[in-house]
UniProtKB/TrEMBL annotation:
Residue positions of the active site: 186
Source taxonomy: Bacteria, Pseudomonadati, Pseudomonadota, Alphaproteobacteria, Rhodobacterales
Residues in Glycerol-3-phosphate dehydrogenase NAD-dependent N-terminal domain copies: 2-153
Residues where NADPH binds: 11, 31, 103, 135, 250, 271
SUPFAM superfamilies linked to this entry: 6-phosphogluconate dehydrogenase C-terminal domain-like (SSF48179), NAD(P)-binding Rossmann-fold domains (SSF51735)
Predominant localisation class: cytoplasm
Similarity annotation: Belongs to the NAD-dependent glycerol-3-phosphate dehydrogenase family.
PANTHER family in the cross-refs: GLYCEROL-3-PHOSPHATE DEHYDROGENASE, GLYCEROL-3-PHOSPHATE DEHYDROGENASE [NAD(+)] 2, CHLOROPLASTIC
Catalyzed chemical reaction(s): sn-glycerol 3-phosphate + NADP(+) = dihydroxyacetone phosphate + NADPH + H(+); sn-glycerol 3-phosphate + NAD(+) = dihydroxyacetone phosphate + NADH + H(+)
InterPro entries: 6-PGluconate_DH-like_C_sf, 6PGD_dom2, G3P_DH_NAD-dep, G3P_DH_NAD-dep_C, G3P_DH_NAD-dep_N, NAD(P)-bd_dom_sf
Organism of provenance: Albidovulum litorale
Regions that span the bilayer: none
Protein's UniProt name: Glycerol-3-phosphate dehydrogenase [NAD(P)+]
Job description of the protein: Catalyzes the reduction of the glycolytic intermediate dihydroxyacetone phosphate (DHAP) to sn-glycerol 3-phosphate (G3P), the key precursor for phospholipid synthesis.
Gene3D superfamilies, per database record: N-(1-d-carboxylethyl)-l-norvaline Dehydrogenase, domain 2 (1.10.1040.10), NAD(P)-binding Rossmann-like Domain (3.40.50.720)
């Protein structure tokens, strides 16, 4: 069974490498023809994933139709680009198993990956792959556990078997809402954790922020139909711990730069920045209290300073936990 990966960034390349190590044929699509040609020739993605060789069973192309012939397609593209990609290439992609690998909420529609997939490609089998992982760890074959969420549990079991390897362990759930929101919301909290550390507020403050952030994640996710056990699993709590405590996290590094008042590389995708604004809009419509997400959204838009954000959060009324 051939597998295709759409998106030759760090995570897409890492997934292609990890799956191909077992002799699996993997097609990797790069949007830029020059990048595709370079990857196919040099067998390395030095800019995004230095020091990792592409196995011979990985073929790279800028022609999406050739990669889309695979039965399983992993969508390793940024959340804010996913809808446009699916609509543009609907004819080639519809009817396949389409697995979103982005962790975020579409700013234009307020929807997560599986909803975006289902609307753009109604004949597809939508799923999401998420959980605590860094591209470098996956590419180097370090043990990693992820959540695979698919509303059709029988198809989910097939995908679980096809995508698991001896060191990439997938746990299955049918709770796509919980898996999507866990992965999306933890990025917002990770930005806030980075702000805390960048501003020099200390580890105790970060622990408090993570705890209250996890409460916010549950508050919104449960209101939208997620299951509590999903948020307590890999795609929620597990990913939250990883991204709030490691400088490998782009969201954490972005928040750290905000906290220190430093510039951040604009070419680096930070899913939590757009997600924070989408979450604030969604929570407001639902009447759900999301103070940390609101502060992150305001910081991203430069509508508030770090000092003002901290003061606002600390001034909130005392209450029961």
């Amino acid at each position: 069974m051939k597998i295709g990966v759409l998106g030759a960034g760090a995570f897409g390349t890492a997934l292609a490498v990890a799956l191909a190590r077992e002799g699996q044929e993997v097609g990797l699509w790069a949007r830029d023809p020059d990048q595709a040609a370079r990857l196919q020739t040099e067998r390395r993605n030095e800019r995004r994933l230095p020091g990792v060789d592409l196995p011979e069973t990985v073929s790279v192309s800028a022609e999406i139709a050739s990669v889309a012939q695979a039965e399983i397609l992993l969508l390793a593209v940024p959340m804010q680009q996913m809808a446009g990609l699916l609509i543009q290439h609907r004819a080639a992609l519809d009817g396949r198993a389409l697995i979103g690998c982005a962790k975020g909420i579409d700013l234009a529609s307020g929807r997560g990956p599986t909803q975006i997939i289902g609307e753009a490609c109604p004949k597809a089998v939508p799923a999401i792959l998420t959980g605590p992982s860094f591209a470098a760890d996956i590419a180097r074959g370090l043990p990693t556990a992820l959540t695979l969420a698919c509303g059709d549990d029988a198809r989910g079991e097939e995908l679980q078997g096809a995508l698991s390897t001896p060191v990439l362990r997938l746990y299955r759930t049918s709770d796509t809402v919980g898996a999507e929101l866990g992965g999306a919301l933890k990025n917002v909290v990770a930005i806030a954790a980075g702000v805390v550390m960048g501003a020099g507020l200390g580890d105790s403050a970060r622990a408090a922020l993570m705890t209250r952030g996890f409460a916010e994640m549950n508050r919104l996710a449960l209101a939208l139909g997620a299951r509590a056990e999903t948020l307590s699993g890999l795609s929620g709590f597990g990913d939250l711990v990883l991204t709030c405590t490691s400088t490998q996290s782009r969201n954490f590094r972005f928040g750290h730069a905000l906290g220190k008042g430093e510039a951040f590389d604009p070419s680096t995708t930070v899913e939590g920045a757009a997600t924070a604004k989408a979450v604030s809009q969604l929570a407001k419509k639902r009447g759900i209290d999301m103070p940390i997400a609101n502060m992150v959204g305001a910081l991203v838009d430069r509508n508030i300073t770090v000092a003002e954000a901290v003061s606002t959060l600390l001034a909130r009324p005392l209450r029961k936990e």
